[in-house]
Amino acid sequence: MSIVMSISPPPPSASSSSSSSSPLASPPTPSSVPSPASLPVRTIPGSYGWPLIGSIPDRLDYFWFQGPETFFKKRLDKYKSTVFRTNIPPSFPFFFNVNPQVIAVLDCKSFSHMFDMDLVEKKNVLVGDFMPSVKFTGDIRVGAYLDPSEPQHSKVKNFAMDILKQSSKTWCQELMSSLSTLWDTIEADLSNNSSASILFPLQQFIFTFLTKCLIGADPSISPEIATSGYAMLDRWLALQLLPTVKIGILQPLEEIFLHSFAYPFFLVSGDYRKLYEFVEQNGKEVLQRGKTEFGLSKEESIHNLLFVLGFNAFGGFSVHLPSLINTIASDTSGLQQRIVQEVRSNGGSTLSFDSVREMDLVQSVVYETLRLNPPVPLQFARARKDFKISSHDSAYEIKKGELLCGYQPLVMKDPKIFSEPESFKPDRFKDNKELLNYLYWSNGPQTGSPSESNKQCAAKDYVTLTACLFVAYLFRRYDSITGSSTSITAVEKAKK
Ligand code: HEM
């Protein structure tokens, strides 16, 4: 089947209407969070331990003995509460200036308070109280670290949303052409080997596609950026995030070498300079819009563009697409045949944003993958004032300045919202669209809209549409694929 491209802007946010019932009558979005007055007030359980050294056992549990998911789960079970106090790394003894004390919020209702900008502040808390050096972003605080109350946030967020709107004209076309290259590469590898690694081809694909769309420049203009651009971003990302992420290498080596200090920017300054110059020389049109439409200096535009491209977009898709491939390629329940049926009988011959609207199963599979594998697992927000937070069964007093920490992999398994929460149910969101009110991967409900007044992902709709198009392309090209998140072992071409 041939795949021709068409151009169409993304649809508005998904509708929340549904005929089926949901465990909750209305979403726990800020406007409708039930009044804590009707719930019993409970002291927040848990403790931070002794000053300074109290955080060490929690750090070791988090990175070594338990890992993040078990860490949060064990404390949830111990306190019989989805809201509790704990420390999370990075922390003492080497990170003196970082306060590890947080209030964990682990159900859909308490988590949703982090979307209410009247209650919480998002200044410098993207990855917690620890903030990577601004040296990684040209000595400026880029948009993701700004609170909506800071005027610069509006400029940068609107700039990001404008870039997406402008690029929607070529988004599908670039996606299809990059996908064609990706799967040609995988097929060529498979013709010589029993398995094709997808790690590098996939990252190459993500980088090329996003650079064309967001910067408006083809990386092939620069041979070095074309071949190594994605690896440059990987290194730049890794150095910023290492103190916060469990890698899984031999302990105590990981604790000593990766979690005890922040790596300096100079190790990747050469890479960053090359990426900066690439945008400066080849992204003139988008830089001009940054200046005339949003009042951003050239430097501000470039550093923000690199962050959106490298951290938000490349980082997000590099986690999400492998989990989507894994979900589908490892399925043995007949899901692939159902997807084949849907993507070939709906959406017309031309794959576009509009086509995906006609593919309910594909959308539901993407949403369910985002529910079970939220690519950005942790979200943070600081109390702007004293307020009461409510879980499903209790209310708790939060004091101004306290840091809330939501761990999405558990929040997205809230049994009060999602039936059989641990199971992958491909039709879950197809059968009950109201559940989209509780899908939070974008730091806001899937039914919400990103704006300058909130901190929801600027590309909320583009991400899900792109993932759906990825799946639709795949099953117009193949009858079946077999593999995992790291490799493909077989593809069966579509019978004409
Ligand atoms: C699978 C891919 C992606 C995922 C999982 C993702 C996820 C997120 C999340 C969770 C946040 C909120 C972080 C926080 O403040 O706690 C966010 C913010 C943001 N994302 Fe995405 N994102 C993805 C792709 C993209 C893309 C393609 C763009 C391109 C424009 C983008 C632009 C942004 C921007 C600009 C923000 C900051 C919003 C603000 O400051 O108000 N993201 N993203």
From TrEMBL:
The keyword DNA-binding does not apply. InterPro entries: Cyt_P450, Cyt_P450_E_grp-IV, Cyt_P450_sf. It comes from the Eukaryota. One of its GO terms (biological process) is sterol metabolic process. Keywords: Heme, Iron, Lyase, Metal-binding. GO terms for molecular function: heme binding; iron ion binding; lyase activity; monooxygenase activity; oxidoreductase activity, acting on paired donors, with incorporation or reduction of molecular oxygen. Residues 1-38 are annotated as: Disordered. Gene3D superfamilies: Cytochrome P450. Its cofactor is heme. Residues 14-24 have a biased composition (Low complexity). Heme binds at residue 457. The keyword Transcription does not apply. This is Fatty acid hydroperoxide lyase, chloroplastic.
